[in-house]
Design goal:
Largest sheet: 9 strands, antiparallel
CATH architecture of the largest domain: Roll
Shape: elongated
Number of domains: 3
Number of strands: 25
Distance between the termini: 72 Å
Radius of gyration: 30 Å
Structural class: alpha+beta
């Protein structure tokens, strides 16, 4: 099946991850309704607009897995493979997005059902558009940037932080020329994830989308600009970043850190044309969670790469949603001496990562309680906490003081080595395992008392306590055994009989426990 926005909606629907709401809905209510749903939502009746709105499409690990076509824990491997084997986009003539074209005076951005998100938003924000720009020297670049609707044919574009598109816009501004861009809205998540990746200058992120697809991404030539767009997008805006500089106030914004950002000074974009499919669907990428979740595979791929390069054998990586999928990594490793600290240093080298926790491979990195337990029971702060001062920061970190104009502040980074210390016996960390854990199920014991429970051996007719005691002694003469081992040896003997026999043998001085707690025959 061809990977399109609509094929992804079908995948969500077929996996009970999408609901359709046909009742009339006001666009101002969309942002508040999406977080209340355990599924993505397609609003098919938005008052005042002719097109549906889809939102919340990537707001969980399961939806990301459906988007990438692999289990969640395999996403980063698929992404790494795509980056290792990029496929160049391919120009096509048959572009579904060109079914209807409005240009010049016919352009009206307010025909699009662009919702408001926060009570402080400066206005309706386009949040899920893939912006494609080109530079004569560095080639094509794709990224996702917010565009605030200002006028019928004017938006802002939030490129206040250093990135490749800003570099393109600065170079165009120096030559006093506009920078043509296309904005593709409603694309397959392959393109969204690829565009989220912060590639080096000169690297086209759309080649990663091709790697994820396993075939070239189809691009269509622009109608009013010399820059292509994604051919099977739902909606495309063609425009140009005006050569005015970073002078126009825009915002406030909902940021990935789950806080409100301030007013940014940004360039403006003049929209020259609106292209759309037949019966288009508008995609409102929900802030901040869809933005947050999309970042996780990117940082996880980087984490696996740097751990491999550091010679550390990783078994699991979690870029946590509590850290906004930008700042925190928990990694499990199969440890050799010193690997805990090496893993910390490797992971803290990833650009935005601020805090790292390293655990052994017996810890579930996706279980916050398990990770906290490792920190509580395996860490001595003066030995296992590493702090690095004056490292590169993410300016949106609210714990940093507001930076001076034009300055990017530095941050402190921290790593916690929550692996079992080399000088502590691993036997001190023997986990509790309940008898018959994983072998019996509660559901088999629920219901009417007359219903029989399937499984398990039926007890034999009662044997004398003396007979059972002699059998236990004979078994203990062959090997030391925990009490649970004796239960395994005599599965058809009543539990109470075994407990009583062991108690009698202990009382008579015939058995004792060894240093591990196993029973043995008294010497």
């Amino acid at each position: 099946m061809v990977a399109t926005f609509r094929s992804y909606l079908d995948a969500l629907k077929n996996n009970n991850e999408l609901i359709e709401i046909a009742k009339p809905i006001d666009a101002r209510d969309i942002a508040a309704l999406v977080p209340q749903s355990e599924q993505a939502i397609l609003f098919t009746n938005v008052r005042g607009y002719s097109m549906p709105v889809a939102s919340g499409l990537l707001q969980s690990r399961n939806r990301l897995a459906l988007a990438m076509g692999v289990p969640y824990d395999k996403i980063e491997a698929k992404l790494r493979a795509a980056m290792d084997h990029p496929i160049e986009p391919q120009r096509v003539k048959d572009a579904p997005v060109k079914n209807a074209i409005r240009a010049g005076k016919d352009v009206d951005l307010f025909d699009l059902p662009v919702p408001v998100f926060s009570v402080m938003d400066g206005g309706p924000m386009i949040t899920g558009g893939i912006v494609i720009g080109e530079d004569p020297e560095f080639g094509m670049n794709a990224g996702i940037y917010r565009l605030m609707l200002k006028e019928k044919n004017i938006t802002g574009i939030d490129i206040v932080t250093p990135n490749n598109l800003r570099k393109f816009a600065e170079r165009a501004l120096q030559q006093n020329r506009p920078l043509p861009i296309s904005i593709s809205i409603g694309t397959h998540p392959y393109e969204l994830v690829a565009a989220t990746f912060k590639a080096n200058l000169g690297v086209n992120e759309l080649t990663f989308a091709g790697g994820l697809r396993g075939e070239p991404l189809p691009l269509a030539d622009g109608e009013t600009i010399p820059v292509p767009c994604i051919a099977d997008a739902e909606i495309v805006l063609e425009g140009e970043i005006l050569p005015e500089g970073w002078i126009h106030p825009e915002g406030p914004f909902c940021e990935f850190n789950r806080l409100m950002g301030g007013i940014h000074l940004n360039p403006r974009v003049r929209i020259k044309a609106i292209l759309q499919r037949k019966d288009p669907i508008y995609y409102a990428l929900h802030m901040p969670w869809e933005n947050i979740w999309m970042s996780a595979p990117i940082y996880e791929a980087a984490a696996w790469r740097v751990l491999h390069e550091a010679g550390v054998q990783a078994t699991a990586v979690n870029v946590t949603p509590g850290g906004c999928c930008h700042w925190h990594i928990v990694a499990a490793i199969r440890k050799s001496p010193g690997d805990g600290k090496n893993a910390i240093m490797a992971l803290l080298s990833i650009a935005d990562i601020k805090h790292v926790t390293i655990v052994d491979d017996d810890i579930d990195v996706f279980d916050a309680t398990d990770v906290e337990w490792a920190v509580a029971t395996r860490v001595q702060a003066d030995r296992d906490v590493l702090i690095v001062s004056n490292a590169r920061s993410k300016p949106l970190d609210p714990s940093l003081p507001p930076p001076a104009a034009g300055k990017i502040p530095t941050t402190a980074k921290m790593g916690i080595d929550a692996t079992i210390p080399e000088n502590v016996p691993a036997s001190r960390y023997q986990r509790i395992v309940y008898y018959n854990q994983g072998k019996v199920e509660l559901k088999n014991y629920l219901g009417d008392v007359t219903e029989s429970v399937n499984g398990g051996a039926k007890a034999k007719p009662s044997e004398s306590l003396e007979t059972i005691s002699q059998k236990i002694l004979a078994a203990l003469e062959k090997s030391h055994s925990f009490f649970a081992d004796l239960l395994e040896l005599f599965p058809t003997t009543e539990y109470r009989s075994i407990a009583s026999a062991v108690g009698q043998l202990h009382q008579n001085g015939k058995i004792v426990q060894d240093g591990d707690g196993k029973y043995q025959v008294t010497i």
